[in-house]
Amino acid sequence: MYHLRERLAVAVQRTGLAHIILKASVGLPSSWQRLIVMTWHRVAKDLGCGFDRGVLSASPEQFDHQVSVLKEYCSLIDTTDIERYRDEGRPLPPNPALLTFDDGYRDNLTVALPILKKHHAKAVFFIPTGFMGVRRLFWWERISAIIARCRRSEIRLGYPAPLQFSLNDGVSRYEAERRLARVGKTYPRMDLTLFLTGLAEACEVPWDENMECSLADELILDWSGVRALVEDGMNVQSHGDSHRILPTISAEEVLSDLRTCRELLQAQTGLAQRVLAYPAGIGFVPGDPGYRAVEQAGFGLAFRLDGATCRMARISDWLNISRLCSTPGMTDERFLGYLAAPNYLA
Questions:
Q1: 13 φ/ψ angles, rounded to the nearest 5 degrees
Q2: How far apart are CA 282 and CA 10, in angstroms?
C-alpha cells in the first residue's frame, strides 16, 4: 500500500496535477478551504546512538525544502487565526497551513528554528512540560536507549503481560522497540515506571539518574530553550505534562495532567494556553469522560495525528482537528502530492 501511494503521489506531482489543485484552491471561499496542519518531531541528520529512529521526521535539507514548498503554495497561519475563524467568522487566507512540532526535542531549537527564521515562517511547538525541568528521557526514548545497550539476544518481560522479544540483529531490535512502544501507548492504567524498570532488568542494563540526565540534556529542550523559541516569535502550546497517552489513563488523571501542563507553560512563557496536541496524536471522541476532561482543563482547540485534512466548513469538533506528519522517506515529489491530496496519499 505504501509503495502504491508513493507512486500515486509522484504521478500527481509529475503530471502537474498537484500544482493545479493547490493553485485552484486559492480562489475557494474560506469555508471551502482545506486546513493543512503539518507535524514534525525531530529534524536531524544524525539521531545519535541509542535514540528512537521512529521520531525522525526530516533531514535539515528535507525540512528546508518542505518549508519552501509550503511557503510557495500555502498561507502560513497560527492557532489564533483558527480561533478567530471559529469564534468571529474571520476568513482564513488561501490554502491555510499550520506548522507544528511535537515533543520538544533539542534539534527543534538548534536545527529547525534557524530554517524557519530563514523562511520567515512561524510554527507551533507542543511541549510536554514534565521533561523540561526534571531531566529525564521520554519513556519511548528510554526504551530505545535500553535496547541499544542490551547485550542479550532475547529478553522476557512479565509486566504488563508476558512478553518475549528477539534481539539477534538490528532488524529484530528495531521491531522490539516498536512493539515495546506500542505497549506503552495501548495498555490502560499501566505503571510506566514498573514497566521501564522491568525492561532494564530483563536487558541487564544498569540505569541511573546521572545517565538519564546526561541523555536528556543531549536530546530534549529545557525551559531556557522553550523560552528561546518564544523570544524568536514562535508559539508554544500544550502537549501534556507526562506525555502519557491520554486514553490509557483515567479522566481524573487527564484533567490533572493537562492542568499542570497549562499552568507550567503559562508561567514559563507568558503565553495563553488554549491549544493542545494529544500525545502520540491519540485523543477522545465526544462524550468520553476524557473528552470532557480536555474541555475542563481549558482547551478550545486540540489536534490529533491521523494523516488527513478537512475543509474548514466541515470541522464541527474543534478538539479533534486532523494533522499530517512528515517522514524521512517522503521524497520532494511525494510531499507536494501529499499536500495536494493528503486524504488519498497519506
A1: -75, -45
A2: 29
Counted domains in the chain: 2
Mean pLDDT calculated for residue range 261-271: 98
Q: How crowded is the C-beta side of 149, counted as CA atoms within 13 Å?
A: 17
CB atoms within 10 A of CB 281: 17
Q: Which of 168, 196, 213 is the last residue of a domain?
A: 213
The cell numbers describing 62, all together, are 528535507
Contact in structure between 207 and 200 (CB atoms under 8 Å): yes
Q: The C-alpha cell of 109 is what?
A: 531549537
The grid cell for 266 is 503559562
Question: Contact, 233 vs 226, CB < 8 A?
Answer: no
Q: Which of 64, 30, 13 is nearest to 339 (CA)?
A: 13
- pLDDT tens digits along 81-135: 999 999 999 999 999 999 999 999 999 999 999 999 999 999 999 999 999 999 9
pTM confidence score: 0.94
Give the separation between CA 112 and CA 43, rounded to whole angstroms.
6
Beta strand 301-303 pairing with 275-277: parallel
- State the cell numbers at 305: 495525528
Of 187, 213, 239, the residue that ends a domain is 213
Q: How far is CA 266 from CA 124, 133, 228, 242, 323, in A?
A: 15, 14, 15, 17, 24
Residue with cell 506528519: 325
Half-sphere exposure of 180 (CA within 13 A, CB side): 34
Tens of pLDDT, residues 65-77: 999 999 999 999 9
Do residue 278 and residue 337 come from a single domain? yes
Range of the domain at 68: 2-133+222-345
